[in-house]
Amino acid sequence: MMRANSIAARRTPTGLPREVAMRFTVCLLCLCGFSDSPMTVAAASLFSGAMSLPDFDALWNYADPAATEAKFREILPAVPEDQPAYRLELLTQIARCQGLQDQFEAAHVTLDVVEKSLDRGTDRTRIRYLLERGRVLNSSGRPGDARPLFVKAYDIGLKSGEMRLAIDAGHMIAIVEPKVEDQIAWNLKCLELIEKHPDQDRWRRAVYINLGEAYRSAKQYDRALDSFTRVIEWYEKNGKPVDRYARVDQAKMLRMTGHPAESLDKMRALETELNGEVDGFVTEEIAECLLVLGRESEAAPLFRQAWEKLKDEKWLERSEPDRYQRLRTLAATP
Fold first, then answer.
1. Which residue of 183, 216, 322, 326 has the smallest Cβ count within 10 Å?
2. Counting beta carbons within 10 angstroms of the beta carbon of residue 84, is it exposed (0 to 12), middle (13 to 18) or buried (19 or more)?
3. How far, rounded to the nearest angstrom, does the alpha carbon of residue 82 sit from its chain's CA centroid?
4. Which pTM was predicted?
5. What percent of the chain has pLDDT over 70?
6. How far apart are CA 36 and CA 40, in angstroms?
């Protein structure tokens, strides 16, 4: 009787054994042109006996959270019931996709599902839940509510040896800290962890960006310049194209430390590389340099051009209101 029940449990509602149904599904997906889809890869690996699932972290495209969410949702049906931790972690990343699309209520609903099943997960599951709940709270304007979740995620990460997630939590604490000195302290703490764990060097870029921003807020421009220069060095060391905004950040601090001509040269070079594309942040920095150098007539039209590009950047208006208003004022100057 027990064996009969076992056999029945391995059959689908159609009466086919699950292995046969899975093979049929994979063949059908391949015939329909979906051989490379996350669901096909997951299903193929499952019926092959490997019981492995895709590394969903490798599927992330932070510039396109909607497309990433679609990929994650393709994987969900292929996750077996005996891998609840994987399913719960995948749901936390779906919630992150929703948060990045400003779908905050939907993200909370997804995380509520995870929260109800945390007892079926692992330390890593709990850390990822805390991180994503905190990120949604922070993105929706509640950094104070997010902070204790990030701190808890950080503590669990250290205790469980999940260093990647611990550093992630630490860098999020730095973001939500209200006092700039605490932002600096947490970023430095993250850098210490990266030094102790070289396999986490991928975090160095993000932490130095945040540290540079914190030093800039504290008007410690020399240290901010050093931090942003280290970001560029990270790109070069890892053989990656240097992000344009890392170059803008460095140029801005060169200007703030008394080197506007050098900043202008760097931004003019970047402008040339953009091959006709007008980037509001690059144009803004060029205009600021020209203003400092006493070339107001050249700066004025560039401020207007930068304003037209950046006036709809709500995050800029929200996070840097003084800068936003300054650009508006300078753009209106004849």
1. 322
2. middle
3. 30
4. 0.81
5. 84
6. 7
